[in-house]
Amino acid sequence: MAENRENIRLSAEEISGGDQESSPFGFDFVIVGATGDLTMRKLLPAFYERFRGDQIDGTTKIIGTARSPLSSEEYRTKAAEALKAFVAAETYDASKAEAFLRLLHYVPLDMTEQNADWSALSSLLKTEKGRPRVFYLATAPKLYVPTADAIAHNSLITDTTRIVLEKPIGTDLASATAINDGVGQHFRENQIFRIDHYLGKQTVQNILALRFANPIIERIWNADSIAHVQITASETVGVGQRGSYYDTAGALRDMVQNHLLQVLSFVAMEPPTAIAPTVLRDEKLKILRALRPMTDDMIRTDTVRAQYAAGEVDGTTVGSYLDDLEDGESTTETYLAIRAEIRTARWAGVPFYIRTGKRLAQKETTVIVQFRPQPWAIFPDKPEPGRLVIRIQPNEGISLSLSSKDPSTEQFCLREASLDVSYEKAFNTRYPDSYEDLLMAAVRGDQVSFIRRDEVEASWHWVEPILNGWAANIRPLETYPAGSRGPKSADDLLARNDFVWKELTDAC
């Protein structure tokens, strides 16, 4: 195991990400759990888009495996229905879809059974040297290690084989470590791709460009200029069909331990020496380790957890979280707000506020950087301190709010104005789904947008005391009406420092 940990330090060739050319090439891609919702809704449409964009050639084999007793033709029929349902109308092309479906194959197989008959799958995998081979585990995390064991037992690991693990990696630090150790028994660290679809979002990746390609931004990106940072991921939907999974996870495991801590690390990290896997992930890790540990007192005063009650969303009356569960009894949080601190010189005294929730008033994922006010007043009106808004979704873009003289009055009155950039309008291009980039990066062996094992474990190390504190009811569970902006206690969290949450409607 020590040898596997040392492999975290990648070679110069691996740091480069391998061949980055976009010309079409062939590979073998095995999807374990190929009949599930993720495969049909995200993975196959993503591959279709890259096939439509001439990045995948006709020798490619996308092989689905699951327990369902389907033939390859029956699987293609199921996949064809998924493409029609989930590919955007403006990019769906029937002839392209038909050609793409010919790349699909299906093998009924329980991948956790080492002694099952693997000959059908093995015969589909090409053996020429250098051909990429990817196993994508779209399954429950408890199956990751047994599946890795079975792949190794059947001698299917080559020098160019990668394994992709969906989040969550475990449910706590111990289970995450067990998964990393178990998969690491067979795969080197540079073969393990822990996927977080937020890292495939162009707007999250653009945080790096915004900061490090624009010196004017980076020079004010510190405690001298910034009062606080807000990271919000809110949804109007409830748990839907994910109730059984969500009730074992909750908002903290489902959103913060992975997605939002990754966004926070992009916002707070020091400048990397290169946009390369080892270098970039080293800087993210430093931030995750610099998060101030949450004590019981901090959990009591600096966290909020709540669950949605019945209410009205977009004019429709909806039930509570308990109504959405089969058993109707749960203390799982569907909303949280956390005040975090980063113990570095750059961010000394700057609180980072994280919030996420379901059944809220609007759907938005944003980062709001609130700048400090002018230290002395020279205008009759006290100017509103400027802020930078990074819209991750929807309406991807950035806006910078500034105070300007109001031209409609003779007095020297100030009014807030925004410099706004919509990425869709600025670049006049389709914004790809995050899985499109991530799947092809895994095929190429480029780990820039994937998570290293020590990042996973550092995230759990910070999150786990909060989970334990909530389990001990140090911070009692509250409720909030569906369709609201969350419980009042979340507002109080910011009000202690004379701050307020900025919503997308009033932040831009």
UniProtKB/TrEMBL annotation:
Residues 30-206 form the Glucose-6-phosphate dehydrogenase NAD-binding domain. Pathway: Carbohydrate degradation; pentose phosphate pathway; D-ribulose 5-phosphate from D-glucose 6-phosphate (oxidative stage): step 1/3. Residues 1-21 are annotated as: Disordered. The active site is at H259 (proton acceptor). Keywords: Carbohydrate metabolism, Glucose metabolism, NADP, Oxidoreductase. Substrate binds at H197, K201, E235, D254, K358, K363. Catalyzes the oxidation of glucose 6-phosphate to 6-phosphogluconolactone. Belongs to the glucose-6-phosphate dehydrogenase family. This is Glucose-6-phosphate 1-dehydrogenase. It comes from Acetobacter conturbans.
